[in-house]
Amino acid sequence: KRAGMLTMLTSSGKKAGLLVNPGNRAIASEREDFAAALAGKELSVYEAASEAEAEAALAKAARDSVGALAVSEDARLNRLREKIIAAATRAKIATVHASREDAAAGGLVSHGDIRMEQMIKLGDLAGRVLKGQKPEAIAVVAADKFETVVNAKTAAALEIELPAALREGAQILQ
Fold first, then answer.
1. Digit-coded pLDDT (tens) for 86-134
2. Using CA atoms, how far apart are residues 36 and 5, in angstroms rounded to an integer?
3. Nearby residues of 55 by Cβ (< 8 Å), 6 or more positions away
4. Which residues does residue 151 pair with via DSSP β-bridges, in sequence order?
5. CA–CA separation, 50 and 83 (whole Å)
6. Which contiguous run of DSSP H or E holds residue 139?
7. Are strands 66-71 and 15-20 parallel, antiparallel or unpaired?
8. For residues 42 and 160, what is the distance between their CA atoms, to the nearest angstrom?
9. Parallel, antiparallel, or unpaired: how do β-strands 109-113 and 146-151 relate?
């Protein structure tokens, strides 16, 4: 879904980017997923694991004329959330994130699981283990509830007219 959002935000000839933590082993599949969803459009990948690297990556993305940047879901990048969003906003780059917290912090749009639902499921699983159920006897539970959040204030600051398909079904933060 986030790759589709990136596609919508780069439909007017803008370049697409992906910000990743190079120390995260899952980035190879994420790069492939985003590249496939862009259907032949160029995807520029930027790496950052520190505040300085994030600033440099966003500055390079701006020089490369990236119009929209997906930020990989990664613990290290999550800690840099405010810096990444501020640098992207200064550079007039729309950002696509995986959590509501990112959109609430000023990112343009997010799509991901509803964290509270995941915490409730995790608490249930922990309770079952504490009551003596063997962990290997418990079925794997995947996220099944997702939300899309759009930050209208960020869209206005970036002077972006959001596609109707992106707003459809989304919670709009004012």
1. 999 999 999 999 888 898 899 998 877 666 566 666 777 788 788 998 8
2. 13
3. 83, 87
4. 173
5. 10
6. none
7. parallel
8. 21
9. antiparallel
